Amino acid sequence: MPQLIPFFFLNQLSFSFIILLALVYIFSKYILPLYTFQRVIRMYITKLSNKN
Amino acid sequence: MATKVAASAAVDFSRVYSSLGLGKETIASLQAFRKRHSEAQRLHAQYSGQPTTVDLARYRSILKNTAIVDEAEKLLKDFKPVTYDVSAHVKAIETFEAKAVEKAKETEAKIDIELKELQATLANIEEARPFEDLTVEDVGAAHPRIVEAVETMMKKGKWTVPGYKEKFGDLNMM
Amino acid sequence: GLRKWPTPFLKPMWPFMAAGTITFYLVAKLQDAAVRSPEFAKDPRNPYAAQIAKEAHH
Amino acid sequence: MQNLNFIINSPLEQFEVTSLIGLNAPIFGYLNTSLTNLGLYSLLLLFLVVGLHFMGNNETKIIPNKWSISLESSFASLSSMVREQIGVTNEIFLPFIYSLFFFVLIGNLISNVPYSFAITSSAIVCLGLSVTIFIGVTLLALSIHKIKFFSFFIPSGTPLALVPLLVLIELVSYGARAGSLGIRLFANIVAGHTLLKILSTFLYKLFSGNLVVAVLTLIPFGIFIGLVGLELAVSFIQSFVLTLLVCSYLRDAIKLH
Predict the structure, then answer these.
(1) In this prediction, what percent of chain C has a pLDDT beyond 70?
(2) What is the per-residue DSSP string for D122-157?
(3) How many independent structural domains does chain D possess?
(4) Coiled-coil annotation: which residues (chain B) (predicted)?
(5) What mean pLDDT do residues B146-151 have?
(6) A15-29, A35-49, B59-73, range with greatest mean pLDDT
(7) Does residue D212 belong to any structural domain of this protein?
(8) C46 contacts A7? CB cut-off 8 A
(9) Contact call for C5 and B157, based on CB within 8 A
(10) Sites in chain D below the pLDDT cut of 50
(11) Domain range spanning residue D133?
């Protein structure tokens, strides 16, 4: 069972944790807010067009 | 003053009415002014055409009471057409004219600025992309209030936009 | 990239980061023990061979 | 038929973690850093996921194109899952859930490419992730509810006599979460990949036999392709199930009952 060879346990764990944390950071700060921002703007534009 | 007279003759009123896009009441007042002007001119022409000499000798022959004729003659002699003190009017007109010219310059400057703005909007319209290419950043730059609203939403950890589901439907796969 | 939004990062993530360090510590101890276990100590692919050899001398 | 002679010892060889660029220096206490193939694939995963999202936003235009619609639908699905599972007030975990979903999903999809490495097939990553999430959720619950958190193990309305027994059972089932989350993912991926490896080796033998046998093996090859399809489905299902369970664990932590 090659998964049980202990040599790179720490290495595997640190890589996957760092990548996951980086992913969460990039998503929460850069990418996901754009979707809510887009939704708010769409609501704003429809409200704008209903007004006049 | 001569140039003014020549200029006023050259004013083509029909063009003034139509092209300058004046307001209705300005056109009405212009027309009234022109009517008064032509009326005055006509009267002036009519009266200046009339003889102003009085044939006193004939009267003396007809009337017995020559004293009346003498009196009329005296009256005639010291009759002076009342000379209106036109200078006040003229001064008023002058100041009005100065003010008008100055206002005209002002409006001219304003029109220049408007012209530049129009040019800018024209350029904007030309380089503006159709609605399909409107990006989120453009609207964000145009309305920083929206950006602040979304930032507070993010800080508070609120990700749902109220009313979005009803209006735009839900792209939910599950 | 695009502009940065002030979404909180630590606020939701602190429990998982703390837990991460705990598991990290546990796995580190596990690995050190396992690497020195007789079964893997002599393994040619063992990157810690030098370390183990030095410790063996003391 | 010249037989390819590189030796494939066991179907599990595909899961071996080897160091591609290693640096083992005796400086400050035996520095052992190395870029392993798992590290390389996780960097590839980070690049793919972030690249997918940067390329797929249709230059942040308001009107979406095909790519941004699909990403918007994934955002809508995950945000509605978070809203339903964890509740509307604390949607603060959406980025974590979203990135966990994509981490596991794209990791599994990469592993379906032949001769690539499966990140989620390494026991320590899956179990580590699962134990971390378990401890994280418990820490969160303790931080919110302090002592009252332990009322979670006593289902409401149990007679006093039964309480110790039930608490024990609840504790065991709560503790099992730590392992089950990871082992489920790990077992599915490893089993699937091992099965495909064994079948493909067998089919290769059949195909390289004489012509008649080769043509006949097209039928089992069809089944094999079906299995590859199944493996793709497994990748999706596993990442979805993991995300859903993490959401429900978070709900238990925040809402207790």
Answers:
(1) 98
(2) SHHHHHHHHHHHHHHHHHHHHHHHGGGGGGGGS-TT
(3) 1
(4) 101-128
(5) 94
(6) A15-29
(7) yes
(8) yes
(9) no
(10) none
(11) 37-254
Reported in sequence order, the residue ranges of chain C that DSSP labels E, i.e. its strands, are none
Copy the structure tokens of residue D38.
């798992």
State the helix-helix crossing angle for D66-86 and D94-111, rounded to 10 degrees.
Answer: 120
pTM over 0.90: no
- Pull the structure tokens for residue D240: 């979805």
Q: Is residue D8 part of a domain?
A: no
From the list B52, B97, A13, the residue with the least C-alpha distance to C29 is A13
Q: Which helix (H) or strand (E) holds B29?
A: helix B24-49
How near does any CA of chain C get to the CA of B151, in Å? 6
Backbone φ, ψ for residue B172 (5° rounding): -65, 130
Q: Tell whether D27 is covered by a domain.
A: no
CA distances from D34 to A15, D21, D37, D92, D129 (A): 11, 5, 10, 35, 21
Q: Report pLDDT for B20.
A: 65
- What's the complex ipTM? 0.84
Domain range list for chain A:
6-50
Residues of C with CB under 8 A from a CB of D: 1-2, 7-8, 11-13, 15-20, 22-23, 26-27, 45, 47-48, 50-51
Residue D20: list chain C partners with CB under 8 A.
none
